[in-house]
Write a structure and sequence with these properties.
This protein is α/β, with parallel strands linked by helices and 241 residues long. The chain contains 11 helices and 7 strands. The strands form 2 sheets. It has a 4-stranded parallel beta sheet, sandwiched between helices. A 3-stranded parallel beta sheet has the order 2-1-3, covered by helices on one side. The longest helix is centred in the middle third of the chain and has 15 residues.
């Protein structure tokens, strides 16, 4: 049984052992929310690896449910996106019925964030290339969005964390300027360290940005009925829509 935290406890399932995003998540969360992390061990970041991960994720969900957390959050959007928007929803509903605990995936928090910011057509940026970006595009199209582009970066999966945030800013800016009719920007993945450029991108390009970490913080706090705003990391956390 987990120790009690006065604003609730969320159990998260990390897709890799890569440091960075867990620390960012905890720093941005309101004080009083406890975090219990469990880990998978993705190595390649490929479609076949994501498709084969569901049983491993389910085992971690069961472990967190046994610990008695208030909310379960499997991180890593692609392992659920490969099952499609409706397929993901079916999986989560079945798990919630089984464990009697609310569950929300990374992709679901991002869909909710895009809708809350009234983004209908967006340009996406990722550190994946090929079929993973095609799967991501189809997922969001099925969720009702117009995806103008899903621009990947050529970088090894193991080296994503070494990218400078300025490189990510430049990649994102270039992608947006090719698709200036977009009313928002979507950033896939928490492997890159770029929270420091979210506000800059919103300020320079004059559109909201949905990054997985702020989207995660926002969605978790919403479900735990916490409305603490945080400045400096984009409109989503500054306004808590």
């Amino acid at each position: 049984m987990v120790f009690m935290s006065w604003r609730g406890v969320v159990g998260v399932i990390k897709p890799t052992h890569r440091p960075g995003s867990l620390e960012e998540f905890i720093r941005l969360l309101a004080e009083g929310i406890g975090v219990v992390p469990l880990y998978l061990n993705f190595q390649r970041g490929t479609e076949d690896e994501f498709r084969g991960a569901l049983n491993a994720v389910h085992e971690k969900v069961a472990e967190l449910a046994k610990e008695g957390v208030d909310l379960i959050h499997p991180e890593g959007a692609p392992p659920f996106m490969v099952h499609g928007f409706k397929g993901e929803e079916k999986i989560i509903k079945e798990w919630e019925a089984q464990y009697k605990i609310p569950i929300v995936t990374a992709a679901q928090t991002q869909v909710e964030a895009l809708r809350a910011l009234k983004i209908k057509k967006f340009v996406g940026v990722t550190y994946f290339t090929g079929s993973v970006n095609d799967i991501t595009t189809r997922y969001f199209q099925d969720a009702g969005f117009e995806v103008l582009a899903m621009e990947g970066m050529e970088v090894a999966f193991a080296d994503v964390g070494r990218l400078a945030s300025q490189e990510i800013y430049a990649h994102t800016r270039k992608a947006f300027l090719k698709n200036q009719s977009a009313d928002g920007i979507y950033m896939l993945g928490t492997g890159w360290r770029c929270l420091d450029v979210i506000h800059l991108l919103e300020e320079d390009l004059q559109v909201p940005v949905v990054h997985p970490v702020p989207a995660r913080v926002w969605a978790v706090q919403k479900r735990l009925h916490v409305r603490q705003r945080t400045k400096g990391f984009g409109k989503l956390l500054e306004e808590m829509p």
